[in-house]
Amino acid sequence: MTNITRARKSNLAAGSTWSANGGAVETGDLRDAGSLPFGSNVFSPAVQKERLSGDTFARLTKTLDAGEPLDASLADEVAEAMKEWALEHGATHYTHVFQPLTGLTAEKHDSFFEPGGNSDAIAGFSGKELIQGEPDASSFPTGGIRATFEARGYTAWDPTSPAFLLENPNGTLLCIPTAFASWTGEALDAKIPLLRSMDALSISAVKALKLLGDEETVRVFTTVGPEQEYFLVDEQYYYERPDLVTTGRTLFGAQPPKGHELDDHYFGSIPERVLACMMDTERELVKLGVPVKTRHNEVAPGQYEIAPIYENSNVGSDHQQLTMQIMQNIARNYGLICLLHEKPFAGVNGSGKHNNWSMGTDGGHNLMDPGDTPAENASFLFFCTAVIQAVNKHQGLLRASVANIGQDHRLGANEAPPAIISIFLGAELDKAFESILSGEGDGKTEEAVLGLGTPVLPPLPLDGGDRNRTSPFAFTGNKFEFRALGSSMSLAFPNTVLNTIVAEAIDELADKLKAELDSGKDIGEAVGEVVKESYGANRQIIFGGDGYSEEWHAEAESRGLKNLRTTPDALPEVISDSTVAAFENYNVLSRRELEARFEVWVEQYTVLANIEAETAKSIAKTMILPAALRYAGVIDDSDIDGIDGELKALVIDLVAKLGELEEANKYPDGVEGLELAEYARDNQLAKMSEVREVADQLEGIVADDLWPLPKYSEMLFIR
Ligand code: ADP
Ligand code: MG
Q1: Residue 696 burial by CB count (10 A; 0-12/13-18/19+): exposed, middle or buried?
Q2: Percentage, residues of the chain above pLDDT 70
Q3: 429 C-alpha to center of ligand 2: Å?
Q4: CATH number for the domain harbouring residue 271
Q5: Does the beta carbon of 313 sit less than 6 angstroms from any atom of ligand 1?
Q6: Per residue in 297-330, pLDDT tens?
Q7: Are residues 547 and 674 both part of a single domain?
């Protein structure tokens, strides 16, 4: 192997790492549900029923079903049962898992073992320990809510998201989903506002349903089904790239001769090593009760997707965090690294996360399902209109809810979906709304829709063939798909926003509906009036064309829609007047809690931009420049005149651009907060791209065996 160059060595290893580990992952027999491990590591309702007294189980179930506050007196019995179950499964430690404002998952492990001299002092775990933890939380970001010296944070058990066991080759851990608050009661995490927003929406929706003639529904749940995109690369390449290790994306790398022009990857057959990894991941997730359902290749080479069946927003959001964690863990067992960054490779499709969202009643009715009775149609149109109104009013906030530094390479950069928020309804639904607005039906369908109260209504628009992949917010048959989320993101905040703004719109429309009903109209007519007025006022947000096109950018501007291209542009929406009003009105987040998030997210952006800029500087200076100089030596040694011009010019350019980047990396005095984030964007990130441009040209001429970084053509295609 001594003659094999740097690149060839890793390629050879990368290409030959995988060997079938046949039978390592048992599949079970799909015909026999009992043989499947679904939820085997979850303290599920079935396990609870088996292990709790009838009374405790009934009271706990009521809490879960109706979203009622937890009765603390249940805690001791539940804790005891949970502990016994966990110990039987080999658990040694427990942890309260929560989601601090970093957006990541945090855990602090406590042993079940209580050394006390007494031989049966093992396994202390009381109701108090179940319900509440008190991590020394001084290092979590709080956006000024809690000074470090008052470092107490509280974690509180969330019984609505089931506890589970996380297996590690060296022991098992009981994980208890929890909320995290400051000692003054302010939410320091992503779960508390999500739960509050679910409550708010439920109250509004139940009230509206009553007006619409539904007397039965007690609770409405919001649901989420995320489609997660990700890349898998061989771990060799990953560890050879300081940019991937430090920032999650490649800061350098020329375009490969072959990209995804051939469209040969999308839905293509999955390479065996990748498939094995996926199956293993899915099996682990299934044990944890995550209902994984689909897998396929995505558009870019090396890119894939995994999607579960939808669940209520809280559990779905917790499960999504778990999914990202398990995907990354399991990939390691296959010599792969799972990249969740929104844009690991420039010029290659980035990764998003489609957030399928709907509302369902406790009776199992999906409010976004057009249904096939007149009453269901009217209800559907009412709630659908509420979503349109909410999205139009809070378009800036929705954009902000999906802002992070990685997203700035996707949204607004001519890639799925644009930074301009708009709604795609599909031709049929468009027609229905337009005819309600104009009061004129042209042909059967529209008249029937107009009539709303008439006994025979055609089934309202379903999924249809037309799917607009460029729309950031699309109606897809019986749910809305918010497509602008980034692949690394938690679902919690975008769904908190959706729930809150839709709750607000439902209430606004319900007030009007009530007035129409009070004036003597029947439900069909009254809903017709409400829909007509709201749709007319919010119709600017509806767009069915190509969201990537330049024309759309121009048209959106003339419509007055917001186009917040970067994270620093978008984040102020988190503390705008309309956001604060809605969030305070529905007790989801106070102004102070919103300001805290704004501060933390702005700082996160600035810090990450700085890390990228420093990493880029270091790679350019200590890896790329030396490689170019070595190659210059080779050219000199060749004694052939006239072949060094291009190289020399690029090296001189590189050194100059590098100097400018180093200059940009020095923060100006007295600049902070949002202004510093803008500085980082306009100076550090801008200079970085200039350095990259030259470096990528060098990659095209420096001898391959001297080039210090694995190339796109290797990372994306060898596995
Ligand atoms: P596509 O790729 O065509 O958008 P998929 O079948 O891959 O569709 O994903 C659809 C996602 O939408 C799944 O996660 C599914 O569970 C979810 N979904 C379906 N119905 C609902 C609903 N009522 N609420 C939330 N999510 C839903
Ligand atoms: Mg989708």
Answers
A1: middle
A2: 86
A3: 19
A4: 3.30.590.10
A5: no
A6: 877 889 999 999 999 999 999 999 999 999 999 9
A7: no
